[in-house]
Design goal:
Number of helices: 10
Strand content: 15-25%
Distance between the termini: 40 Å
Largest sheet: 8 strands, mixed
CATH superfamily of one domain: Vaccinia Virus protein VP39
Strand order of the largest sheet: 5-4-1-6-7-9-8-10
CATH architecture of one domain: 3-Layer(aba) Sandwich
Number of strands: 10
Helix content: 40-55%
CATH topology of one domain: Rossmann fold
Order of helices and strands: HEEHHHEHEHEHEHEHEEHE
Shape: globular
Protein backbone atom coordinates (compact mmCIF):
# COMPACT_ATOMS: atom_id res chain seq x y z
CA UNK A 1 0.00 0.00 0.00
CA UNK A 2 3.03 2.27 0.30
CA UNK A 3 4.12 2.12 -3.35
CA UNK A 4 1.98 5.11 -4.32
CA UNK A 5 3.71 8.51 -4.37
CA UNK A 6 1.71 11.53 -5.46
CA UNK A 7 4.83 13.13 -6.96
CA UNK A 8 4.21 10.93 -10.03
CA UNK A 9 1.02 12.92 -10.69
CA UNK A 10 2.00 16.35 -9.35
CA UNK A 11 0.62 19.17 -11.47
CA UNK A 12 -1.40 16.85 -13.73
CA UNK A 13 -4.80 17.73 -15.20
CA UNK A 14 -6.37 15.99 -12.19
CA UNK A 15 -4.40 18.23 -9.83
CA UNK A 16 -5.48 21.30 -11.80
CA UNK A 17 -9.15 20.43 -11.29
CA UNK A 18 -8.70 19.48 -7.63
CA UNK A 19 -6.59 22.45 -6.55
CA UNK A 20 -8.50 25.02 -8.59
CA UNK A 21 -11.66 23.98 -6.76
CA UNK A 22 -9.94 23.86 -3.36
CA UNK A 23 -8.86 27.47 -3.85
CA UNK A 24 -12.47 28.42 -4.63
CA UNK A 25 -13.79 26.57 -1.57
CA UNK A 26 -11.28 28.23 0.75
CA UNK A 27 -12.04 31.68 -0.59
CA UNK A 28 -15.74 31.06 -0.06
CA UNK A 29 -15.16 29.90 3.51
CA UNK A 30 -13.20 33.07 4.16
CA UNK A 31 -16.23 35.13 3.19
CA UNK A 32 -17.20 34.88 6.86
CA UNK A 33 -15.00 36.23 9.65
CA UNK A 34 -15.40 33.13 11.82
CA UNK A 35 -12.37 30.79 11.64
CA UNK A 36 -12.59 27.29 10.23
CA UNK A 37 -10.53 24.13 10.13
CA UNK A 38 -9.13 22.59 6.95
CA UNK A 39 -8.85 18.80 7.24
CA UNK A 40 -6.93 16.72 4.68
CA UNK A 41 -7.28 12.96 5.21
CA UNK A 42 -4.56 11.99 2.70
CA UNK A 43 -2.22 14.97 2.59
CA UNK A 44 0.80 13.60 0.71
CA UNK A 45 4.10 15.48 0.86
CA UNK A 46 2.58 18.92 0.44
CA UNK A 47 5.08 20.26 -2.10
CA UNK A 48 6.74 18.74 -5.18
CA UNK A 49 9.73 19.60 -7.36
CA UNK A 50 8.79 19.09 -11.00
CA UNK A 51 12.33 18.96 -12.37
CA UNK A 52 13.63 16.07 -10.26
CA UNK A 53 12.60 12.67 -8.93
CA UNK A 54 9.23 11.06 -9.55
CA UNK A 55 7.58 14.17 -11.00
CA UNK A 56 10.30 14.61 -13.62
CA UNK A 57 10.17 10.93 -14.50
CA UNK A 58 6.43 10.84 -15.17
CA UNK A 59 6.16 14.48 -16.35
CA UNK A 60 2.39 14.43 -15.85
CA UNK A 61 2.53 18.13 -15.07
CA UNK A 62 2.84 18.63 -18.82
CA UNK A 63 -0.81 17.54 -19.13
CA UNK A 64 -1.91 20.18 -16.63
CA UNK A 65 -0.17 23.12 -15.02
CA UNK A 66 2.48 23.46 -17.76
CA UNK A 67 -0.23 24.20 -20.33
CA UNK A 68 -1.63 27.01 -18.16
CA UNK A 69 1.60 28.53 -16.92
CA UNK A 70 2.12 31.19 -19.59
CA UNK A 71 -1.50 31.78 -20.57
CA UNK A 72 -2.63 35.39 -20.62
CA UNK A 73 -6.35 34.66 -21.07
CA UNK A 74 -7.10 32.84 -17.81
CA UNK A 75 -10.59 33.22 -16.34
CA UNK A 76 -10.27 35.23 -13.13
CA UNK A 77 -11.18 32.36 -10.81
CA UNK A 78 -8.63 30.10 -12.51
CA UNK A 79 -6.05 32.87 -12.18
CA UNK A 80 -6.58 32.75 -8.39
CA UNK A 81 -5.28 29.19 -8.45
CA UNK A 82 -2.38 29.98 -10.79
CA UNK A 83 -1.35 32.82 -8.49
CA UNK A 84 -0.77 30.28 -5.69
CA UNK A 85 1.64 28.31 -7.87
CA UNK A 86 3.38 31.45 -9.13
CA UNK A 87 4.00 32.52 -5.52
CA UNK A 88 6.10 29.36 -5.12
CA UNK A 89 8.02 30.12 -8.31
CA UNK A 90 8.91 33.82 -8.00
CA UNK A 91 11.53 33.68 -10.75
CA UNK A 92 8.81 32.86 -13.29
CA UNK A 93 10.08 29.36 -14.05
CA UNK A 94 7.74 26.48 -13.25
CA UNK A 95 9.76 24.30 -10.89
CA UNK A 96 7.64 23.66 -7.79
CA UNK A 97 4.06 22.53 -7.51
CA UNK A 98 2.03 22.71 -4.28
CA UNK A 99 -0.12 19.86 -3.04
CA UNK A 100 -3.43 20.47 -1.32
CA UNK A 101 -1.89 21.18 2.13
CA UNK A 102 0.45 23.79 0.73
CA UNK A 103 -2.35 25.49 -1.22
CA UNK A 104 -4.40 25.61 1.96
CA UNK A 105 -1.54 26.90 4.11
CA UNK A 106 -0.81 29.66 1.62
CA UNK A 107 -4.42 30.87 1.61
CA UNK A 108 -5.64 30.25 5.15
CA UNK A 109 -5.75 33.07 7.66
CA UNK A 110 -3.71 32.95 10.83
CA UNK A 111 -6.83 32.17 12.89
CA UNK A 112 -7.75 29.17 10.71
CA UNK A 113 -6.37 25.70 11.43
CA UNK A 114 -4.96 22.85 9.35
CA UNK A 115 -5.22 19.19 10.34
CA UNK A 116 -3.20 17.01 7.99
CA UNK A 117 -3.02 13.20 7.94
CA UNK A 118 -0.70 10.96 5.94
CA UNK A 119 0.11 7.27 6.43
CA UNK A 120 3.04 6.87 4.02
CA UNK A 121 6.19 7.04 6.23
CA UNK A 122 8.31 8.87 3.68
CA UNK A 123 5.58 11.26 2.59
CA UNK A 124 4.65 12.25 6.15
CA UNK A 125 8.29 13.01 6.98
CA UNK A 126 8.53 15.36 3.99
CA UNK A 127 5.14 16.86 4.85
CA UNK A 128 6.32 17.66 8.38
CA UNK A 129 9.40 19.40 7.01
CA UNK A 130 7.37 21.39 4.49
CA UNK A 131 4.79 22.51 7.02
CA UNK A 132 7.51 23.48 9.49
CA UNK A 133 8.95 25.75 6.83
CA UNK A 134 5.51 27.29 6.37
CA UNK A 135 5.27 28.05 10.09
CA UNK A 136 8.75 29.54 10.09
CA UNK A 137 7.77 31.74 7.17
CA UNK A 138 4.68 32.91 9.05
CA UNK A 139 6.80 33.70 12.11
CA UNK A 140 9.26 35.66 9.99
CA UNK A 141 6.35 37.79 8.81
CA UNK A 142 5.52 38.60 12.42
CA UNK A 143 2.43 36.41 12.81
CA UNK A 144 1.74 34.84 16.18
CA UNK A 145 -0.82 32.05 16.07
CA UNK A 146 -2.66 30.87 19.17
CA UNK A 147 -1.91 27.22 19.87
CA UNK A 148 -0.71 24.94 17.11
CA UNK A 149 -1.91 26.30 13.78
CA UNK A 150 -0.80 23.27 11.76
CA UNK A 151 -0.99 19.71 13.03
CA UNK A 152 0.49 16.84 11.01
CA UNK A 153 -0.20 13.28 12.10
CA UNK A 154 1.18 10.03 10.72
CA UNK A 155 -2.06 8.09 10.74
CA UNK A 156 -4.99 6.79 8.73
CA UNK A 157 -7.02 9.84 7.75
CA UNK A 158 -10.22 7.84 7.37
CA UNK A 159 -10.04 6.84 11.02
CA UNK A 160 -8.70 10.18 12.28
CA UNK A 161 -11.55 12.17 10.73
CA UNK A 162 -14.04 10.71 13.20
CA UNK A 163 -12.33 12.32 16.19
CA UNK A 164 -12.31 15.79 14.62
CA UNK A 165 -16.00 16.11 13.89
CA UNK A 166 -17.81 18.19 14.87
CA UNK A 167 -14.93 20.69 15.02
CA UNK A 168 -14.49 23.21 17.79
CA UNK A 169 -14.79 26.00 15.23
CA UNK A 170 -18.16 24.64 13.99
CA UNK A 171 -16.90 25.28 10.46
CA UNK A 172 -14.85 22.82 8.41
CA UNK A 173 -13.59 22.11 4.90
CA UNK A 174 -12.69 18.42 4.60
CA UNK A 175 -10.70 17.03 1.65
CA UNK A 176 -10.86 13.25 1.18
CA UNK A 177 -8.30 12.27 -1.43
CA UNK A 178 -6.91 8.71 -1.10
CA UNK A 179 -4.75 7.13 -3.76
CA UNK A 180 -7.33 4.39 -4.51
CA UNK A 181 -4.35 2.08 -4.88
CA UNK A 182 -6.22 -0.18 -2.49
CA UNK A 183 -9.56 -1.16 -4.05
CA UNK A 184 -11.11 -0.96 -0.58
CA UNK A 185 -10.61 2.80 -0.68
CA UNK A 186 -13.81 3.23 -2.69
CA UNK A 187 -15.89 1.66 0.06
CA UNK A 188 -13.92 3.45 2.76
CA UNK A 189 -14.57 6.81 1.08
CA UNK A 190 -18.30 6.18 1.10
CA UNK A 191 -18.29 4.96 4.69
CA UNK A 192 -16.09 7.82 5.88
CA UNK A 193 -18.24 10.45 4.20
CA UNK A 194 -21.43 8.90 5.57
CA UNK A 195 -20.04 8.92 9.10
CA UNK A 196 -18.72 12.47 8.72
CA UNK A 197 -22.10 13.78 7.59
CA UNK A 198 -23.78 12.05 10.49
CA UNK A 199 -21.39 13.72 12.92
CA UNK A 200 -21.28 17.13 11.25
CA UNK A 201 -23.92 17.64 8.57
CA UNK A 202 -23.04 21.32 8.00
CA UNK A 203 -19.44 20.70 6.99
CA UNK A 204 -18.14 21.21 3.46
CA UNK A 205 -16.65 17.99 2.06
CA UNK A 206 -14.73 17.40 -1.17
CA UNK A 207 -13.97 13.90 -2.43
CA UNK A 208 -11.54 13.46 -5.31
CA UNK A 209 -11.75 10.27 -7.38
CA UNK A 210 -10.12 8.89 -10.55
CA UNK A 211 -12.27 7.81 -13.46
CA UNK A 212 -10.96 4.40 -14.44
CA UNK A 213 -12.24 1.21 -16.02
CA UNK A 214 -12.62 -0.55 -12.66
CA UNK A 215 -16.15 -0.88 -11.34
CA UNK A 216 -15.50 0.80 -8.00
CA UNK A 217 -14.34 3.96 -9.73
CA UNK A 218 -17.35 4.18 -12.05
CA UNK A 219 -19.87 3.55 -9.27
CA UNK A 220 -18.44 5.82 -6.56
CA UNK A 221 -20.16 9.14 -7.42
CA UNK A 222 -23.56 7.44 -7.73
CA UNK A 223 -23.11 5.77 -4.36
CA UNK A 224 -22.10 9.08 -2.77
CA UNK A 225 -25.13 10.84 -4.25
CA UNK A 226 -27.37 8.27 -2.54
CA UNK A 227 -26.17 9.27 0.92
CA UNK A 228 -28.56 11.42 3.02
CA UNK A 229 -27.21 14.71 1.64
CA UNK A 230 -29.32 17.77 0.84
CA UNK A 231 -26.74 19.60 -1.27
CA UNK A 232 -24.11 18.07 -3.52
CA UNK A 233 -22.30 18.75 -6.77
CA UNK A 234 -20.39 16.28 -8.93
CA UNK A 235 -17.94 17.52 -11.57
CA UNK A 236 -15.66 15.60 -13.95
CA UNK A 237 -12.92 16.60 -16.37
CA UNK A 238 -11.54 14.42 -19.19
CA UNK A 239 -8.62 15.40 -21.41
CA UNK A 240 -8.77 12.54 -23.93
CA UNK A 241 -10.37 9.25 -24.87
CA UNK A 242 -9.48 6.21 -22.71
CA UNK A 243 -6.46 4.36 -24.02
CA UNK A 244 -7.12 0.94 -25.63
CA UNK A 245 -5.16 -0.85 -22.90
CA UNK A 246 -7.20 0.85 -20.18
CA UNK A 247 -4.13 2.34 -18.50
CA UNK A 248 -3.46 5.98 -17.75
CA UNK A 249 -5.54 8.59 -15.95
CA UNK A 250 -7.50 10.50 -18.56
CA UNK A 251 -10.35 11.72 -16.34
CA UNK A 252 -11.04 12.59 -12.72
CA UNK A 253 -13.91 13.91 -10.67
CA UNK A 254 -14.86 15.80 -7.54
CA UNK A 255 -17.90 15.12 -5.39
CA UNK A 256 -18.63 18.11 -3.17
CA UNK A 257 -21.07 18.16 -0.26
CA UNK A 258 -22.56 21.53 0.75
CA UNK A 259 -20.82 23.39 -2.10
CA UNK A 260 -20.82 27.19 -2.29
CA UNK A 261 -23.83 28.49 -4.18
CA UNK A 262 -21.38 30.28 -6.49
CA UNK A 263 -19.38 27.20 -7.45
CA UNK A 264 -21.57 25.77 -10.19
CA UNK A 265 -21.50 29.04 -12.11
CA UNK A 266 -17.73 29.29 -11.71
CA UNK A 267 -17.29 25.75 -13.02
CA UNK A 268 -19.47 26.47 -16.04
CA UNK A 269 -17.15 29.36 -16.86
CA UNK A 270 -13.82 27.60 -16.25
CA UNK A 271 -14.34 24.00 -17.39
CA UNK A 272 -14.94 24.80 -21.09
CA UNK A 273 -11.66 26.72 -20.96
CA UNK A 274 -9.83 23.77 -19.38
CA UNK A 275 -11.25 21.40 -21.97
CA UNK A 276 -9.99 23.68 -24.73
CA UNK A 277 -6.52 24.20 -23.26
CA UNK A 278 -5.83 20.80 -21.70
CA UNK A 279 -7.75 18.59 -24.12
CA UNK A 280 -5.84 16.25 -26.43
CA UNK A 281 -8.59 14.81 -28.65
CA UNK A 282 -12.35 14.58 -29.13
CA UNK A 283 -12.66 12.79 -25.80
CA UNK A 284 -11.91 15.98 -23.91
CA UNK A 285 -15.05 17.05 -22.03
CA UNK A 286 -16.55 17.99 -18.69
CA UNK A 287 -19.72 17.20 -16.81
CA UNK A 288 -21.51 18.96 -13.97
CA UNK A 289 -24.29 17.30 -12.00
CA UNK A 290 -26.01 18.83 -8.99
CA UNK A 291 -29.10 18.12 -6.96
CA UNK A 292 -32.00 20.57 -6.98
CA UNK A 293 -31.11 22.22 -3.66
CA UNK A 294 -27.74 23.48 -4.97
CA UNK A 295 -29.43 25.48 -7.69
Amino acid sequence: MFSYRHAFHAGSHADVLKHFVIVQLIKYMQGKEAPFVYIDTHAGAGLYALDTGYAAKSAEYKTGIAKLWDRKDLPSSLADYIDVIKALNPNGKLRYYPGSPYCAEYLLRIEDRLRLFELHPTEVKILLENMKKCEQHRAAEGHKARGRRIMVEASDGFHALKALLPPQQRRALVVIDPSYEDKQDYQRVKQSLAEAIQRFANGMYMVWYPILQRQGSRELPKKLSQLPINNWLNVTLSINQPLPDGFGLHSSGLFIVNPPWTLEGTLKEVLPYLVQVLGNDSGAKFTIEANADVR
